[in-house]
Amino acid sequence: MEARISLITLGVADLERARRFYAEGLKLPLQAESTPEVAFFGLQGLWLGLYPRAALAADAHLDPAGSGFGGITLAHNVRTRDEVFSVLAEAMAAGGSILKPAGQTDWGGFSGYFADPDGYPWEVAWNPHFWIE
Q: Taking CA 130 as the corner, what is the angle to CA 128 and CA 133, rounded to the nearest 5 degrees?
């Protein structure tokens, strides 16, 4: 297997609500390949997909009733400490909720967490030790 992730797909309860959150609220670029059944957003180096949760679970042969922490977070690294505040505010204004306010980390950076309308946790982080691009 090559060292690459091409697509992250989130199983969502309401596809239109999720599409609006990411396209209109967070201003992610909606890809032309999107259809009424699935939404794709182009990110740097990969795509983010939104697909109805029950359909995604069926596709993977999983129980769609999973709940609680799924053991994964998504991360968005920013270039400055102040950007952590602005991205968290943008997510909240778009309909997300703050899980952890922005603050100093024990690893020397600065981060906070928001959840999208389906509860997927996103860390927004500034790391002075390295930059992920």
A: 120
Per the structure, how many domains does the chain have?
2
Q: Cα dist. 2→5, 6, 42, 116 in Å? A: 9, 11, 21, 30
pTM for this one? 0.88
Q: Is residue 88 part of a domain?
A: yes
| pLDDT tens sequence across 72-124 | 899 999 999 999 999 999 999 999 999 999 999 998 999 999 999 999 999 99
Both tokens assigned to 68: 């609680």
Report how far residue 111's alpha carbon sits from residue 42's, in angstroms, rounded to the nearest whole number: 24
Domain membership of residue 20 as a residue range: 7-59
C-alpha 16/C-alpha 50 separation (Å) is 10
Sequence-distant (6+) residues with CB within 8 A of 81 are 110, 126
